[in-house]
Amino acid sequence: MTVELGRYGVWRGAAGLSPELAAEVEALGYGAIWIGGSPPGDLALAESMLAATQHIAVATGIVNMWTTAAEEAAASYHRIEAAYPGRFLLGVGIGHPEAIKEYRKPYDMIVDYLDRLDAAKVPVEGRALAALGPKVLALSAERTAGAHPYLTTPEHTREARKILGEGTLLAPEHKVVLDTDPERARAIGRPVVEKPYLGLRNYVSNLKRLGWSDEDVADGGSDQLIDALVAHGDADAVAARLTEHLDAGADHVCAQVLPNGDDPLPALRELAEALKLR
């Protein structure tokens, strides 16, 4: 893998990112910033954040295959790589069936998209694939630098590493709430998990593969499920939960600070200290 992500990164929706925030995140010692959601294919935000920083990596989590043509994503990749070599990772994926009316045969769509990225000379080491289930995880190892799983647990990370084998990137996302009151933390985390993810069959199927029951995923998610998917507590407790992913085989884990609408920097500062990033 040519893009150095470091051990810990930050995942945040595109609307909550800016060049100024990127510079602050870099100063705290995080290794990468993941642009969440489905950013526009021109990837201007990634370019602006790279321009405002010196060494931090920027990745997309993810460019949606249904809304951005592979050729557009490739053109953006080559433009950014030429200006900031070794600092940009093109994360791609298919999103979820419920969001796209034309959604058909997702695995075939992924293969076709990767074929088109090949034709456009986007290198394997410059791209990653959103992956949850075994088949797409295996494909990510064959056709990209590796996998970027979303809404997962360290238990999923452990199983994913078995499928990927050694030497393949595994970079899961994990939601965090810095609050030592469990009820308050769940009240923040549950709505983000419930809508949309507990209504989407690919995420629910993945949770059931991990052993969660119908009751766990119903009615907004059981407390146990929310606690598994949203790390909460003081900074040391959250840092320990993130590190469980690394212990389970991840190369990199990116934290999504909740609530999404708040300034993430206070929490990221506390977390950076607990993670001993500097």
How would you describe what is shown here?
This is LLM class F420-dependent oxidoreductase. Residues 20-116 form the Luciferase-like domain. It is an enzyme of class 1 (oxidoreductase). Its EC number is 1.-.-.-. Keywords: Oxidoreductase. Helices cover 45% and strands 17% of the residues. The chain contains twelve helices and eleven strands. The protein has one domain (8-275): TIM Barrel (Alpha-Beta Barrel). The chain has helices at residues 19-28, 44-51, 70-83, 106-119, 134-143, 154-164, 182-194, 201-209, 214-217, 223-229, 235-247, 265-275, and strands at residues 8-13, 32-36, 57-61, 63-64, 88-93, 127-129, 146-147, 169-170, 173-178, 230-233, 253-257. The two termini are 24 Å apart. Helix 4 links the parallel strand 5 (88-93) and strand 6. The strands form two sheets. Strands 1, 2, 3, 4, 5, 6, 9, 10 and 11 form a nine-stranded parallel β-sheet that branches. A two-stranded parallel sheet has the order 7-8. It is globular, with a radius of gyration of 17 Å. 48% of the residues are buried. It is of the alpha/beta class and 278 residues long. The mean pLDDT is 96.
